[in-house]
Amino acid sequence: MTPLYEKNKLTVYNSLTGNKEEFVPINSPFVGMYVCGPTVYSDVHLGNCRTFISFDMMFRYLEHLGYNVRYVRNITDAGHLENDADEGEDKIAKKARIEQLEPMEIVQQYTVGFRKVMSLFNAHAPSIEPTATGHIIEQIEMVKDILEKGLAYEVNGSVYFDVEKYNKSAHYGILSGRNIEELISGTRELDGQSEKRSPLDFALWKKASPSHIMRWPSPWGVGFPGWHLECSVMSTKYLGEQFDIHGGGMDLKFPHHECEIAQNHATHGAHSVKYWLHGNMLTLNGKRMSKSTGNTILPEELFSGDNTILEKGFHPSVVRFFMMQAHYRSVLDFSNDALVAAEKGYIRLTEAMKKMQSLQVSKTTEGLDVASWVDTLYGVMNDDFNTPMAIAQMFEAAKFINGISDGKLKITASDLEILSSTMNAFFFDVLALQLPQEGNADKLDAAVQVLIDLRMGARADKNWALSDEIRDKLADGGIMLKDGKDGTTYSVE
Ligand SMILES: [Zn+2]
Fold first, then answer.
1. Is the pTM of this model over 0.85?
2. Contact in structure between 383 and 389 (CB atoms under 8 Å)
């Protein structure tokens, strides 16, 4: 069977060129994809979740097309300083100091929490999830290499990347569309205290102050790697000097990704990444999310509804569906009303998915040209992963399914097979949605039946108070009992 990628010409928006380009892997059918992962010093930010869910969708779609994807997403567990700066406390060490824990206890706690949230969102684990602390030796090697190439300098136990020298033979700012003169005029002058030759230079290795507890020996003394270095090292180690996709949130474009490009270029003499993809940010009620203003929500609070911003909790699959209804390069605004609306749409779609399983087939198909619908669906997905348009196509199919179910439209057995395999592939595999009620419906049924039986017993004992209490408490929980001549039934509000 010819793989789907043969007839699906995927195009991706390459941040490096500012164009949509045909996606041609360096070594098809293999695809190498690197995405900057979280710094594990606090609960994962919902904005970061969106980025990782966007790349999970891409990972899944590439696999669906028949590519063999190696997806590397790192865990930053050292070297990321406060304010993303070259000076200051390590974010993880700071949290460890405040909570009186070992830095690695902080790392463990938030790595476990992060993975749990991602699995609730039904995101695949990456193929490799390397850590910065697991690659200190490789990072030291890359620093040595850049020093040997003359593009870095050592001062007092720290090593800095020489941006101006690098820029003589390459372009620093290539990704974010800036040039070095603009960048220099935008930074403040060195204050005389700094060891750097230029304010644009960034740390490859930092000398550890006596209070800096996350420290390792190196040829330049005891210290720790600069934040940007780990991604260059780990992407090269697991995907090679040249690889297909590098992703991350838009906020990482500058300086993080710009510095990665410079480090890789300095080491390998060429640009490493073929397609740079960036996900856009997420706002909450039209405003930037911020802990200090209280305009913030944790993923768990979204699921439980335990936040004043929400009227109720939402199933992770509803949240994922909501995210997929926006293009990954558009800003997405979270609000209670938007989630409620998404939930309605999601339920409509899931109901059609269920109906699809038991449709009557006919000798003809009337109401939808299934083959051209399939082409349209793939066509929009191939246009830079346009999930909102894909979902619109799935709603077209849902309307058609409802029409058949109502006896107004018709479908042949072979068209139904194509329709259902395509709907299933997009719903479950690519968008990675779930049918939430399925698994728990039986358990709920059993639990309510126990209460109905208890109430029957109470009534037989003429214990009206208990009988009413069971009925009223269930009603408070949205479960309405109805006494009929064939016994008691219930409905969920
Ligand atoms: Zn990175």
1. yes
2. yes
